[in-house]
Amino acid sequence: MIPGVNPKQMKQMMKKLGMKMEEIEDVERVVVYTKKGNYVFEGAEVVLTTMQGMTTYQIQGAEPVFEEAEIQIPEDDVKMVAEQAGVSEDKALLTLKETKGDIAEAILKLSE
């Protein structure tokens, strides 16, 4: 809220402007999914603000933790690395994940 403004007056002003604010109760976790990873907000407050027919969600009170997305490795890449390095597909997959999908680096690492 705005400092020095009576909360009751603020609600009246918002009502005149067609604004409505509402807090979502008992929020435990908010996750924002991206291609590179996820932003996780634990114990955040979520406030909905509706104005002129548009609703905005505001997350407040929590620092996000970034969880990097797990890389997706194509099955053909796993088979090729396993054959070239002479290892199991499980070991090839694990090494490909470690090398972030770099086939050449995975084969070199497994051939050492």
Automatic annotation (TrEMBL):
One BP annotation, GO: protein transport
Keywords per UniProt: Protein transport, RNA-binding, Transport
Molecular function, one GO term: RNA binding
InterPro entries with a match to the protein in the record: NAC-like_UBA, NAC_A/B_dom_sf, NAC_arc, Nas_poly-pep-assoc_cplx_dom, UBA-like_sf
Transmembrane as UniProt keyword: no
Domain NAC-A/B: 4-72
Domain of life of the native organism: Archaea
Alphabetized PROSITE patterns for the sequence: NAC_AB
Family according to the record: Belongs to the NAC-alpha family.
Assembly and oligomerization: Homodimer. Interacts with the ribosome. Binds ribosomal RNA.
Main function: Contacts the emerging nascent chain on the ribosome.
NCBIfam families for this protein: archaeal-type nascent polypeptide-associated complex protein
Name of this protein: Nascent polypeptide-associated complex protein
Recorded name of the encoding gene: nac
